[in-house]
Amino acid sequence: MNTNDEYFLKWFRNVTPYIHDHRGKTFVIMIPGDCFGQPGFDNIISDIAVLIGLGIRLVVVHGARLQIEQELNAAGIHSQFHQGARITERAHLPHVLKAIGGARWQLEALFSSGLPDSPMYGAKIKIRGGNFITAMPRGILDGVDHQMTGKVRSVDREAIREIINSHCLALLSPLGYSITGEVFNLSFAEIGTAVATAIGADKVILFNDDGPIYDKNGTHYRDLTLHQCKEFLEGEDRHAPTNTYFSLRAGYGACKKGVPRAHIISSTEDGTLLKELFTRDGSGTMVYSDDYELVRKGEVEDVAGILNLISPLEQKGILVKRSRELLETEIDHFIVMEKDSMIIGCAALYPINGSDSGELACMAILPEYRKSGRAATLLHHVVKKGIELKMKNIFTLTTQTAHWFIGQGFRESEVEALPASRKKMYNLQRNSKVLVKSLARK
After folding, report:
1. Which pLDDT does position 295 carry in this prediction?
2. How far apart are CA 354 and CA 373, in angstroms?
3. Which stretches of 184-301 are DSSP H helices?
4. 433-438 and 411-413 beta bridge pairing
């Protein structure tokens, strides 16, 4: 077997867990009209086709701001904006509809392509659309009449679900229809957020021309909790100038309304969609709204809560006994999960002296919160901390939970595999199983 074959097999096997995880999930993808003319836009379409082929239910919502601007300029028309929203005059509506229609037809043509030796060959994507968005006038704001610029009133969730459940692509344009029979120009991001919320989407994915979020020091924010995202948006002046804030606000809005994940990715870098979804590190910035928000670094004030968690497990011999004094001195190694000011989970990550490895210990979840995925959430943050500390491996020693750790990507190892300083401390009487998880980049 040559090197290329070995690389392919390793890559394919590494990506397989993501394929299993995403199959059957529902994603809403938002594509600004500015992306359409960029080099490599065909690849974005073919990458979306890959998702459909892998059994992911997709709704694509496209924008057309650039196309509308071009159409109006060609007609010698200059439209006004108010708080970022275009004032769509009734007389301008035919030009707006023409621009939006042209953008949609371009997308439909790309999704219909399928030449031999092209990524779209054999895809045969079926596209469905319709009057799924009921709109209402945006009205008069700050004394400004927005005329034919509208906002979402309701979403026909059942119609959209029927489309995606039949393995078709739901394609939505930035238009809505009123109960009086009028058509309104809408924000594609508002439609995407409303649809994702209505159909219970698992993710929203937002393309932009800037890519992931950076601050002024060049630090890449790979993920942000809702709270962190809010602080980031409120402190925009402290971060790098970027157009990405539009996407970040939309992602924040979607998660605020119940969508678990929002991903902001670049439309200018090739393959960002696939890298974001099928690699560990991703390529963009993720905003998330679930229990990750409750996880933080341990503090001395948490010791009482940690003792409440671990004492029953110590009595059963599942965990090694720790005194209050020891916990206070080691609290910097702890990560805790908090709910309504109560510690419901904890874990500690100790660097192992003389090595590039760490040891996961003292992991516990309150009984009433077990079997809810919280342990996996806590482990995710431990792994993240290990990566930040540039650890290559995380070891854990357990007498009763080896099966669960193996299910989380650990593999059973031997005592001899422990770094020398930790091996000397191994308790032969406990006879704990040794498990290890590699943090090396794949």
Report:
1. 83
2. 34
3. 188-199, 226-234, 244-256, 272-278
4. antiparallel
Cβ atoms of 355 and 418 within 8 Å: the answer is: no
For 8, phi then psi, to 5°, come to -60, -45
What is the widest separation between alpha-carbon atoms in the chain?
Answer: 85
Query: At what angle are helices 244-256 and 226-234 packed, to 10 degrees?
Result: 140
Amino acid sitting at position 399: T
Which run of H or of E encompasses 262? strand 261-266
Is residue 383 within 8 A of residue 394, CB to CB? The reply is: yes
Distance CA 142, CA 139 (A): 10
- Closest C-alpha to 362, from 334, 326, 392: 334
Half-sphere exposure of residue 134, counting CA atoms within 13 Å on the CB side? 9
Measured distance CA(395)–CA(191) in Å, rounded: 46
Position 243 scores a pLDDT of 63
- Distance of alpha carbon 136 from alpha carbon 148, whole angstroms: 9
Set out the domains of the chain in order of their start, with CATH numbers: 3-292 (3.40.1160.10), 294-438 (3.40.630.30)
Looking from the CA of 418 toward its CB, the CA atoms found within 13 Å total 22
Predicted structure pTM score? 0.72
Residue 108: the pLDDT is: 95
Beta 57-62 vs 26-31: how paired, if at all? Answer: parallel
Angle at 318 between CA 314 and CA 320, to 5 degrees: 55
Number of helices (H), then strands (E), in the chain:
14, 25
CB 356 within 8 A of CB 391: yes
- Those residues of the chain that have pLDDT short of 70 are 1, 240-243, 290-294, 340, 372, 440-442
Label the pairing between strands 342-351 and 357-365.
Answer: antiparallel
Residue 292's pLDDT is: 45
For residue 442, the SS3 value is: coil
